[in-house]
Design a protein that fits this description.
This protein is an alpha/beta fold. The protein has one domain: Spore Coat Polysaccharide Biosynthesis Protein SpsA, Chain A, CATH 3.90.550.10. About 40% of the residues lie in helices and about 20% in strands. Strands 3-2-1-4-6-5-7 form a 7-stranded mixed β-sheet, sandwiched between helices. The protein is globular and about 50 Å long.
Length: about 240
């Protein structure tokens, strides 16, 4: 049976978070709808790949892809989406801070929405990160909202649900996963933010620091704002 949902999980050096997260995904989705889990290992230097391969015999829904070189989270997400076999994609971070039990909530929001809504973005209403990380994200969200006017309170949340075809039609660049609501709106579709839970990291270490993220974010914001300003859309009819 072809899957109705592909869950794409990008990972880099997350060996201790893999098995618990896979088990939670299976518990949240098995019996609800046909699905697959597509893990994309961004050329980890620990034994992440071995842990994933060891899970495959007992989790038939699991597929494993590996980058030949480390390429970043956005590339890993795009790799997974391109390989996915379902028309709808759910993404979540591989660090275990997103709760797979929220995926059915996103699916319910999709089923209740109109066909013009193509992205359902998780909104972490009670974040479990450090104070400095929450402060940095709060200011980044304010600046982004003012520049892009995407009406999205939390674009950095890894758990999202979107239509595969719409995603693959978006312009691709590194760090694009942080601007999906604005890019989807630029393409002429609507987006909805859905409150989701958030959990503290219990294993592994964060792959980002506040300064590095801010410096990259300034450049990306300018680029996305330029894309929006230069966008042209029109209805098309076949004669």
């Amino acid at each position: 049976m072809n899957p109705e949902l592909s869950v794409v999980v990008p990972v880099f050096n997350e060996r201790d978070n893999i098995a618990p997260l896979v088990d939670e995904l299976v518990a949240a989705l098995r019996g609800r709808l046909p699905f697959e889990i597509v893990y994309v290992d961004d050329h980890s230097t620990d034994d992440t790949l071995a842990v994933l391969q060891a899970l495959k015999p007992r989790v038939p829904e699991l597929r494993v892809l590996r980058h030949a070189t480390q390429s970043g989270q956005s590339t890993a997400v795009r790799t997974g989406v391109k390989a996915a076999r379902a028309p709808w994609i759910a993404t979540l971070d591989g660090d275990g801070q997103n709760d797979p039990a929220d995926i059915p909530k996103l699916l319910a929001a999709r089923d209740a929405a109109g066909p013009e809504v193509k992205l359902f973005a998780g909104w972490r209403v009670d974040r479990k990160d450090s104070g400095s990380k929450r402060w940095a994200s709060r200011w980044a969200n304010r600046i982004r909202a003012r520049m892009l006017r995407d009406n999205t309170p939390d674009t950095g949340c890894g758990i999202k649900l979107f239509e595969r075809e719409v995603f693959l039609d978006l312009p691709y660049f590194d760090h694009m996963h942080r601007y999906l609501p604005a890019l989807v709106q630029r393409a002429g579709w609507k987006t909805v933010s859905v409150p989701v839970s958030h959990r503290p990291r219990t294993a592994g270490v964060s792959k980002y620091n506040n300064l590095g993220r801010a410096l990259v974010g300034i450049r990306d914001l300018r680029g996305v704002a330029w894309l929006i300003a230069r966008s042209r859309r029109t209805a098309v009819e076949e004669l």
